[in-house]
Amino acid sequence: MNQKRSADIAVIIPHYNDRDRLHRCLTALVADPEIGKADIVVVDNNSDQDLTPLRELFPSVRFFIETLPGAAAARNRGVRETSAPMLFFTDADCVPQAGWVAAGRAALDTSDIVGGAVELFDETPPPRNGAQSFEAVFAFNQKYYVEKKGFSVSANLLTWRHVFQDVGDFRPGVSEDVDWCHRARKRKFYLIYDSSVLVTHPTRANMNELRKKWRRVVCESFELQAGLPFPRVRWAVRAGLVLASPMLDLRKLILSNRLRTPKERAAGIIALFYLRALRAGWMVRQVFGWPV
Fold first, then answer.
1. Whole-angstrom distance, CA of residue 277 vs CA of residue 217
2. Which of 8, 200, 209, 286 sits 20 to 30 Å CA-CA off 84?
3. Alpha-carbon gap, residue 277 to 272, rounded angstroms
4. The Glycosyltransferase 2-like domain covers which part of the protein (predicted)?
5. Stretch 137-164: mean pLDDT
6. Which residues pair with 9 in a beta bridge?
7. CB neighbours of 74 closer than 8 A, spacing ≥ 6?
8. Looking at domain 9-202, what is its CATH homologous superfamily?
């Protein structure tokens, strides 16, 4: 069942305790008319949830268990378990849109690495709460990430196997997509953004989910500073910039056409100031070596 398959594309999906969203992701994938040419691999990160029902619903999908924690280890396992020349990375909570496979194949014909678009949707009825309003404006700005920051989030990251092998595995314990793309660009591989390669992603439903996300991002981003000169000084300066950043981003939130009502904008403003202050506080603790 789990022998490597002859295919031109390997779709690699890490999963951890998110069975319902994984079901939605796989349903969208198998509906794609081009998916017959792809090898879909789900790498479960040792979840508590039983995936037997999904194995039965999607017999063409191959499932593996990776006991090493973290999405980086799961993605690396997916690469090892496949042989296709093109690697399409997405996440279990993403929904690949119609034409994702064909658009991704076409985009990779012109580049070494592709960062596709990630659009947001709500899983609850309106109005949006503060977490959802914040995410609707600020989350997954892939075009900016690719063209200004030099990386693509792994929710919609495509590359060639020979590029991945040259760059090396995703590194656990850091922001693995940022780190991997930066290593790739240092090796002169070319990264482009393509809006036609589209997946959608749900907004975080509440502030607890956002706090969890940003705590992880802060911890992983701090680890990326290790190889830079004066890392703690740089991190302290960055903490100050994060604390001041709401004043720069306030206009963006107020004028965004993604928010529908004054109540959503007000909730988003509260979330903006709260989250940036929280992040800055965590970063200061890291500067002094205190636990986050």
1. 15
2. 200
3. 9
4. 11-141
5. 97
6. 38, 86
7. 14, 15, 16, 43, 44, 45, 66
8. Spore Coat Polysaccharide Biosynthesis Protein SpsA; Chain A (3.90.550.10)
